[in-house]
Amino acid sequence: MSRLRLLSAAALLAVAANSHATSFIVTTDSIVGGLKASSDATSDISSSFRDDKIVRAARDDAASFVASEGAIRGVRLESALDHIRQQTPQLNATDAQLAQAILTI
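Structure for DUF2388 domain-containing protein, as requested:
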């Protein structure tokens, strides 16, 4: 009888370990997918606005915005954010993502 319990416990542990591994893989894939989408949007922004004077003038304000976690919002940054959103209305990026993209230019 104890062998049957031992085998049952081993089988149960194997199934539980497999489900945790699958859950981890799904979670990891979701996180990586979200980061890739964010990175793609950021690189699209930085490459298309590389020579834009309004966006380039907002670099210092963008740095302050990122460093203060959004607490400091300069006039040049606000202008650049409006300009970017007017030029690319299909873009769904947060202010923080846009500010980071401005810093990469």
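The CA atoms of residues 5 and 11 lie 10 Å apart.
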